[in-house]
From TrEMBL, chain A:
Keyword terms, alphabetized: Cell membrane, Membrane, Transmembrane, Transmembrane helix
Lipid bilayer topology: Multi-pass membrane protein
PROSITE patterns named among the record's database cross-references: COX3
Subunit annotation: Heterooctamer of two A chains, two B chains, two C chains and two D chains.
Cellular compartments annotated: Cell membrane
Lineage summary: Bacteria, Pseudomonadati, Pseudomonadota, Alphaproteobacteria, Hyphomicrobiales
PANTHER family (UniProt xref): CYTOCHROME BO(3) UBIQUINOL OXIDASE SUBUNIT 3, CYTOCHROME C OXIDASE SUBUNIT III
Protein name: Cytochrome bo(3) ubiquinol oxidase subunit 3
Function of the molecule: Cytochrome bo(3) ubiquinol terminal oxidase is the component of the aerobic respiratory chain of E.coli that predominates when cells are grown at high aeration. Has proton pump activity across the membrane in addition to electron transfer, pumping 2 protons/electron.
UniProtKB/TrEMBL annotation, chain B:
Species whose genome carries this gene: Methylobacterium variabile
Main location: membrane
Membrane association type: Multi-pass membrane protein
Keywords of this entry: Cell membrane, Membrane, Transmembrane, Transmembrane helix
Membrane-spanning ranges: 15-35, 47-67, 73-94
Subcellular location(s) of the protein: Cell membrane
InterPro entries for the chain: Cyt_c_oxidase_su4_prok
Protein name, UniProt field: Cytochrome C oxidase subunit IV
Annotated Gene Ontology cellular component terms: plasma membrane
Length: 240, 110
């Protein structure tokens, strides 16, 4: 593959430019995404489509928030918690953010250790990641319960624009669903790693394909994407 | 780092790099939270929130998701299409402003 690209390039001076490389990768090869397996490329393309789903949700939120004549509820106050007598703004959301970032860190290390064939450490780090993810979902459930008790509904709330409830439940609900699915995937793959499926080439129960440690990286791609979406939700919904 | 053809990401990257990025993500998130805690307002608030958001997103995508080590063909296939979202944002900003204008002029006093 490399040779094909090199042949199509001028042999004269220096390394090829960025655009030469780009056009070479699309034109001269039969496989544009060489280096990434089809599994990884398909995960990336799925994540791209999911980007549009969340993009549309956030744009919908932006549109209703910009066009309402009623003041938007102040998220800093709505999501405040009283800890030891003092009101801390957004504290639960901040903790949720740190939990999810930590889970991304443990996931990145699980992927790196997986490629070093460190079976047990990889499985344990994936389980820690899943545990942090489950903690995140638990805190989100707590947050939903608190807001529902305070009277927030998709069609109304006590503090201002009615659209607050509908966008909140839709965006955080969809994100929470993604985290939940991610936890299930992580536990499934961690079990395979722990059992040594990727070392002995055992076939999967569903696809009958032999997996490899790349499966850990692909699960990791999905997990980091969930964290990535939260970065945008945190900034645009909670801080704005 | 960048040979002619992508190398894939089969080689393990140093754990140190991940810890460094992890640390930065913590610091940037803490900064975002402090903006709210200290009630920073106005243009400074929006620009800092967006700056921290994009730096965090960039770190996650480039290092944690290994996109920096993928082939250019894959990098552009993933990063170029989302720019359509920015165009959509611009369209809906105009639409929302128009809706607000009609509400203010037609529903005034209701």
């Amino acid at each position: 593959m490399t040779e094909t690209v090199l042949r199509s390039l001028p042999t004269s001076d220096g390394p090829p430019s960025r655009w030469r490389r780009f056009s070479g990768e699309w034109a001269a090869d039969r496989q544009a995404f060489a280096g990434a397996s089809w599994r990884k490329a398909m995960m990336w393309i799925f994540l791209l489509s999911d980007t549009f789903v969340f993009g549309c949700f956030l744009i919908g939120y932006m549109t209703v928030r910009m066009s309402t004549t009623v003041p938007w509820p102040n998220p800093s106050k709505v999501f405040a918690l009283e800890v030891g007598g003092t009101e801390l703004p957004l504290i639960l959301i901040a903790i949720m953010t740190f939990v999810l970032i930590s889970s991304s860190g443990t996931m990145a290390m699980a992927v790196a250790l997986g490629y070093r064939r460190n079976r047990r450490a990889t499985a344990l780090l994936m389980l820690v990641t899943a545990l942090l993810g489950a903690t995140f979902v638990g805190m989100q459930a707590f947050e939903w319960t608190k807001l529902i008790h305070e009277g927030v509904r998709p069609w109304s709330n006590p503090w201002g624009a009615h659209q607050f409830g509908s966008t909140f439940f839709m965006i955080t609900g969809f994100h929470g669903t993604h985290v939940t699915i991610g936890v299930i995937v992580l536990v499934t793959i961690a079990r395979k790693v722990w059992r040594g499926d990727f070392d002995i080439g055992r076939r999967g129960f569903f696809t009958s394909q032999r997996g490899g440690y790349e499966n850990v990286e692909i699960a990791g791609l999905y997990w980091h994407f969930v964290d990535l979406v939260w970065v945008f939700i945190f900034a645009l919904f909670y801080l704005w | 780092m960048h040979p002619v053809a992508g190398h894939g990401t089969d080689h393990g990257h140093s754990i140190r790099l991940y810890l460094l990025v992890w640390g930065w993500l913590f610091v940037l998130s803490a900064c975002s939270y402090l903006i709210d805690y200290f009630h920073v307002q106005g243009i400074l608030r929006w620009s800092l929130i967006l700056l921290f958001m994009f730096v965090k997103a960039g770190l996650i995508v480039a290092v944690f998701m290994h996109l920096a080590w993928e082939r250019l063909a894959l990098i552009y296939a993933i990063l170029v299409p989302p720019t359509a979202i920015l165009i959509f944002v611009a369209i809906m900003t105009a639409e929302a402003s128009y809706t607000l204008f009609t509400r203010l002029s037609l529903l005034a006093g209701h």
